[in-house]
């Protein structure tokens, strides 16, 4: 029996794939799910080494046991592209699922500077489709189906809640300096330090940080006393305000009805924060503004954000659409 192979490396790609894999397993679809790098830490039961994945897929291709490949879109790792190239050479259909509104084309650039695109590139909405085209992604491979990783946050939307007199702040870190160096005009280290400084001595706040799996381990250890672990779906509802830079975690917060803000001090590049793009949050670029906001009561306008219905993924049924599409493309034709 032929199998679909799912491959995830980065946390964002893993989140976009996981609900799809879960649903297809419930429907008894024959598949293999491999998690590497940071994704392996999120899902140890499906963890695999790169050598094992390459060897297994090569064997499946030789024995004609693959019906298709579905991947996330990773940064700093080219295994997905390597496997995708092998599948395309063997005429096995390939699908990639986008997890964030940025770097649409660069995700598919190999070490030689060539682009290895999937046969189908699933993007979350018309905005992503338009921006992908503008970056040079072939329009004929783009398919708007939503974002499976967002469904659970939409379904968990809650009304504004207060947890007592002390407001609980959560800072969502991400390894921006590893990707951009100093190009953005700030680093995650600076953003966190300034958030801590802004609430220093303010007894109205408690402050925690949730680190990204790819954050520098030495840096993380220096903030061990205020760090929290666990899934965002479980952690965020326990807080009154979520602070991030351009992480998708801000969108998770907004979808769940939790106040959020984007702090990117001295930003020198175009703003990649999707909640700012969509008008759900606004960009805070100066420490003075941050300090003012954090020492001002959270207003009703930030407690109950009215979400428009113009984006397909806001219906909470992206997983249904993506699973149906994968079945149609990779199973019904084989």
How would you describe the overall organization of this protein?
The chain is 37% helix and 15% strand. It has helices spanning 11-26, 37-42, 50-62, 79-89, 126-135, 151-155, 176-180, 188-199, 217-221, 232-235, 249-255, 274-277, 287-294, 300-303, 318-331, and strands spanning 3-8, 31-35, 66-71, 94-97, 120-123, 142-144, 167-172, 205-210, 241-244, 260-263, 283-284. Helix 12 links the parallel strand 10 (260-263) and strand 11. It is α/β, with parallel strands linked by helices and 334 residues long. The N and C termini lie close together (10 Å). The strands form two sheets. It has a six-stranded parallel sheet, with helices on both faces.
Shape: elongated
Distance between the termini: 10 Å
Rounded Rg: 20 Å
| SS-derived structural category | alpha/beta
The helicity comes to 25-40%
Task: Summarize the helix and strand pattern as letters.
Answer: EHEHHEHEEHEHEHHEHHEHEHEHHH
CATH superfamily of the largest domain: Glycogen Phosphorylase B
Q: Could you say what the CATH architecture of the largest domain is?
A: 3-Layer(aba) Sandwich
Number of domains: 2
Oligomeric state, counting identical vs distinct chains: single chain
CATH topology of the largest domain: Rossmann fold
Side by side, the strands of the main sheet go: 2-1-3-4-5-6
Sheet having the most strands: 6 strands, parallel
**Uncertain segments of ≥5 residues (pLDDT<50)?**
299-304
